[in-house]
Amino acid sequence: MTLGFIGIGHIASALVTGLCASPGWSEPILLSPRNRANAAALASRLAPVRVAADNQAVLDGSDSIVLALRPQQAPEALSGLRWRPDQPILSLMAMLPEASVRRLTGSAAPIVRAVPLPTAAERQGPIAIWPGDPAAAALLARAGTVIVAESEPALHAFWAVTGLVSTYYGVADRLASWLQHHDIEAGEAAAYVGSFLQAIGGTLAQAPGSGFAGLARAASTRGGLNEQASRELAQAGWFASLEPALDGILRRLEGGTAPPEVG
Length: 263
Ligand SMILES: NC(=O)c1ccc[n+]([C@@H]2O[C@H](COP(=O)([O-])OP(=O)(O)OC[C@H]3O[C@@H](n4cnc5c(N)ncnc54)[C@H](OP(=O)(O)O)[C@@H]3O)[C@@H](O)[C@H]2O)c1
Prior knowledge:
The chain is 48% helix and 12% strand. The protein is an alpha/beta fold and 263 residues long. The model is unreliable at 257-263 (pLDDT under 50).
């Protein structure tokens, strides 16, 4: 079974890396030539990976296809390609609902949408998928923890949360900068903040019976430092501002980018 990829950017590179690192992986992977540097780097590093001459050669040489283009690139990249009806499609593309992917490809084959994270390279993190196709779920379970969304709107809701990755890193950056303003050397500040966030983040995955709010309560000793900080940040609207930000991301994911019709 050859797995073909069209669009070799950040997320395709992460997923290919994670798949090839998974135990027992031996399936050939065929990449589109663009981005040329990324495709060449993956092929030189990973034995199962080859680079095709063009996008059509990926379709012709693969049993199933992963689409990892930016939504605005998809109409041009997919236009005029000849798809086989037995060639399932796994689309990682945001803002292109299943109906748009079907229109752009003209394919009658099953289409699954999925949301890997860059941490798929380390075979970590959630990968929301919809619909819950068993073959797609088994493939992606090699690169993370598969969560099957009940519906396409539910997939969009999971997807919206992934829009906060850079905010999370931004918080880490603010903490490290603040330490530097208090005369702590940059490397030491970064090492401290990285270790701190990794340690407290690790407890989240244990999904306590009392929920995340229970973890927050347990960390907030009455009259203590954590209680003071979370009260002041709540009063400043810090927590409340998350929901409108997520709502805004969700509106974009649901609204789509209205790609032009093909064919
Ligand atoms: N990054 C993430 O964490 C993440 C997570 C989940 C889903 N996604 C989704 O995955 C998609 C890709 O995201 P990304 O971050 O990987 O973007 P990206 O790094 O820009 O990758 C897009 C790739 O598509 C290539 N491309 C452009 N036009 C093409 C064409 N005509 N034929 C073949 N390849 C072409 C680009 O090549 P050039 O560099 O030469 O333009 C680039 O390598 C997006 O829809 C995004 O929503 C991303």
